[in-house]
Structures are given as structure tokens and as C-alpha cells.
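Morning run. Coffee first, then this:
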Amino acid sequence: MPHLSLDPTSQSRASSISKGELRIDGEVQGNIRGTRVVIGEHARIAGDIIAEEIVIRGHVMGTARGRVVTLQSTSHMEGDIFHKAFAIEHGATFEGTSRHVDDPLADPAGPDIPINGSS
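And here it is:
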């Protein structure tokens, strides 16, 4: 499985797409799409995240769309979460709404771009 990582000194002002795991420990201003996306404890994201599985440990301002979304204890999420399964650990901060939907990966703002390589 392909793996892409942005370290704590990385900054990106573009959208990131990965067919594998995407781990972000730096700063991203733009949308993120992957199969599994892990937002590290010191990461700062300003944009939307779409993935099969999303694990948030850092700071996110935007919308998260995932089949499984987890806010770990160090996370700070400001935005809406669309999910099939959602977990929030004690200590996590969440300001927004959570909605259980049949297909959280369907992006209403644009065409559906497959993340698993299928069409």
C-alpha cells in the first residue's frame, strides 16, 4: 500500500491525494483525500478530509467525510463530520455537527473521485 507522510516542518497550500495511507504532521491548507488519513498531534489542517478511515490527533478546521472517523484525545476538530462510524476519546475537542450517512465519501460539492482505485 502506498504511504505518504508530511513531517512537522512541512507546509502545503495544495490539495493532497493518496491511494494509500496519508500521515500528516505538518500544516496543510487545502483538501486531503486518501484511503487512510492520520492527522498527527502537532498537525494543523485548514481544509476538508475525505477517506475510508480518518484518525485525528491534531487540529482540523474543515469537514471530515469518512466511513470510520476517530477523534483522539489530543484532537481539536472545528467543522462537520459525516460518517458511518464515529468515535471520540475523552479529552478531544469537537465543535460542529456529526451526521451518520449511508455514503460519507460522496462529496456533494463536486464529482466523486474514487480513492480506492476503482471507478
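The two ends are 18 Å apart (CA to CA). Good start to the day.
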